[in-house]
Amino acid sequence: MALLEWDDRFSVGVSEIDEQHKKLINMLCEFYDSIRDDREGTFKKLLQGLADYTVYHFATEETYMKDFEFAGTDAHIREHRMFVEKVREVQERLDAGKLVVTFEITNFLRDWVSNHILGTDRKYSKCFVDHGLR
Question: Which domain holds residue 71?
Answer without folding.
Answer: 13-130
